[in-house]
Amino acid sequence: METKKLRILIVSPEVVPFAKTGGLADVTGALPKVLTQLGHQVKVILPKYKMVDENKFHLSEVKTDFPVISINGKNHKISLKNDNVDFPPVEYLFMVNDEFYYRDELYRNRTTGYDYEDNDERFILFARGVLEVLKNLDWHPDIIHVNDWQSALIPAYLKTIYTDDPFFKRTASIFSIHNLAYQGGFPKSTFDKIGVPKDLFYPTSPFEFWGNVNFLKVGISYADIINTVSETYAVEIQSGPEFGYGLEGVLRNRNEDLYGIINGIDYDVWSPEKDKLIPHQFSPDDLSGKKKDKELLLETCNLPVSRKDVPVIGVISRLADQKGFDLLSQIADQLLSLDLQIVILGTGDEKYHVLFKELSTKYPKKISVNLRFDDSLAHLIEAGSDMFLMPSKYEPCGLNQLYSLKYGTVPIVRKTGGLADTIENYDPANGQGTGFVFKNYSAQELWETIKRALKTYENIETWVRLMKNGMNKDFSWEASAKKYVEIYLKALQKRFKV
Ligand code: ADP
Question: What pTM value is reported for the model?
């Protein structure tokens, strides 16, 4: 049976290649392209941040006449730009409001390190604006697919202030949660700004969370279908506060409508055969380029290149508690006394900046610490490292372990969320497996697992086999995109009984 061709709007606060702070941008950059290849019509919308390079992407104004949007009595104007490609497979739309979006960072003040105080208003405007944009363009989507708290109000608007609007009478909503720890929590006063009927705020209502407002809860409560980015994480977030961050009960209430779909990888961007950001391409059949990339990585990072092949462990990450750096800090001295080198790329919590700066001062020949966002270096680390470390406390999906597999960079991961779903523990008895996996969140287990990886590295033939096990895995988007189409159809069925 042929699948119905859908019109899909993907709404995301960040999208590769325009604006990125984490894995969400990779997902909303790649999925739309694959959906169009499956025959669906897709548009993507995000705010026009300062980071979005107008000239590079040839942005131009779309002629539209939007009504002003009032937030708590203050009127805000929006306008719209697009990427102006004549026959694009995907059309990218950018919502413009310079007061709200033309800032140095996407979500937080670079100087203070704290979230912008008006993040509630910024993303209320975004959510309201998206629906007005659709009406203005007279483009009726079957599906509005929203992502994370920044767009989570849209499913609620569709079922409250726009519920009688004939324009949306055939539109269903999907809400993807990429990380449950980022919830968009605001004080009660934010409720009035949202602009839905006053009687919707009461204890345990979708708009109320312990006396305050929680955008994620709103999205979970109102979306027709909800999903998160791996099957294991979909189970974990319902299991208790450790993963559910207080929303486990709300998620359990929606259990029948909650799915886990693992993210895919855009192999046009992340594969060692095609990667334009690395100097030496390579493949499972010819790994010689990887050795050269390793040398270049060490030179770039001011680490000595030894004649003996010392293993290099790469880390690319937001420096947040989630990512397991407290475990790493407990074993750092032990680890750096071994014959290995570590390259770290990341930004985030100040305490980890301090920790890693201290380590690089103490062990300048062993560890290179790069506290910035640097896409080119990220690609070089994937290509030039031997192992990739991801000891996460929790991990909704995780992308870097998947990139690592493709680049023959063997992942060392904790068995949680998407890491549990994508990395198979290496079994020396039969040579099967793609990485090194530990179960409990403990520094001791991490230490033993790294030692196991280092021991295996000593045997070059075994190691190359392990690398190739990973390089031959396929995590391309096509299978996952088809699963998204299935949940889009479920959402339509649920909403319209079709
Ligand atoms: P999360 O979304 O939790 O940050 P993921 O593993 O899902 O983690 O995705 C992280 C993405 O961001 C990957 O594409 C990774 O390469 C990229 N990334 C993270 N930190 C940096 C950095 N400092 N420089 C370049 N890329 C980074």
Answer: 0.93
